[in-house]
Amino acid sequence: MNSWHRILGAALFAALLASPAASQNSGLIRLTDRDDLFGWEAVGRVEQGASGYCTGVLIAPDLVLTAAHCVFDRQGNRIAPETMRFRAGLRDGKTIAERGVARHVAPKAYDPLGGMSAENVRNDAALLELETPIQSALADPFVLHGAPRAGLRLSVVSYGRDRDSAPSWQRDCGLEAFGGGLMQFDCDVTFGSSGAPVFTRDGHRARILSLVSGGSSDAVGTTAYGMELPALVDALKRDLRAARPAQPANGGFLRVQVGEGHRASGARFARP
To answer: Taking Cα atoms as reference points, which of 223, 258, 233 lies closest to residue 55?
Structure first.
């Protein structure tokens, strides 16, 4: 996989302010049993019809936060909401709850064919409105953390390629740099991790600091990139309230379930 450093170049890293909180990745824990999943039920797999899947997280009973590039196909067209599903707490074919998607919104500034520019990473978030809410007793939504600061310790829960049948939890990784609405982490991410929530602790429960937009790997380790969320999510909520009612299903789209127990071919991940 080519390095984002060469793709984003000065446009991204001029916007990043160095933070001293680098660390080694600490490995992944597979959340297989129901007890393992306790507290992380609001993280799930966003399935995109025939296009593949991403990771998403509930921020309200009827709102899922994921990456903007997860609501576009590879030709830059919006994926029809009625072909998408959110499967909260999916593990080995079992879910905490499963819902269809009524509509979705992404920032107008996000260009699905624009490549890995700093502007695209900064705007790589989308909101999915579910057809019916998921009760908080089943999956308690997470709240946003706010602005980053030096020294934050992070964790990530995601569905990745070759580990997509259950969520994987990286308990500890670090915020390496931030600034200009962008963040850089040393968290372990791969295809399918797009849209995965990057958590930091605030009191007794994790809060969402950012989302995984994409990343790169080399002999040294994995680098992931994300965006600041509070203002972006507020704008997405306004756009969602202003959105027209969902249109009737387009006969040209088919609802397809991503297979369980084997490698899915459509795991989404931003890279060159």
So the answer is: 258
Q: Does the pLDDT of residue 125 top 80, yes or no?
A: yes
Cβ(177)–Cβ(184) under 8 Å?
yes
Residue 44 lies in a domain: yes
pLDDT in tens, 68-86: 999 999 899 999 999 999 9
Has residue 19 been placed in a domain? yes
The number of CA neighbours under 13 Å toward the Cβ of 54 is 32
Give the C-alpha distances (Å, rounded to integers) separating 182 from 80, 147, 176, 261: 29, 11, 11, 35
Question: Which residues neighbour 10 within 8 Å (Cβ) at sequence distance 6 or greater?
Answer: none
Instruction: Assess if residue 175 is contained within a domain.
Output: yes
Question: In total, how many domains does the chain have?
Answer: 1
Cα(213)–Cα(197) distance, rounded to whole angstroms? 10
The beta-strand segments (E) located in the chain are 17-18, 29-30, 43-48, 53-60, 63-66, 84-88, 97-105, 126-130, 153-160, 163-179, 182-185, 197-202, 205-211, 214-217, 222-227
Copy the structure tokens of residue 222.
């994995």
**Distance between CA 101 and CA 213 in Å, rounded?**
21
How confident is the model over 232-272, as pLDDT tens digits?
999 999 999 998 665 554 443 333 333 333 334 455 555 54
In a domain, 8, yes or no: yes
- For position 87, which CATH number holds? 2.40.10.10
Q: What one-character-per-residue DSSP string does 42-85 give? A: TEEEEEEGGG-EEEEEEEETTEEEE-GGGGB-TTSPBPPGGGEE
Query: Domain span at residue 125?
Result: 4-242
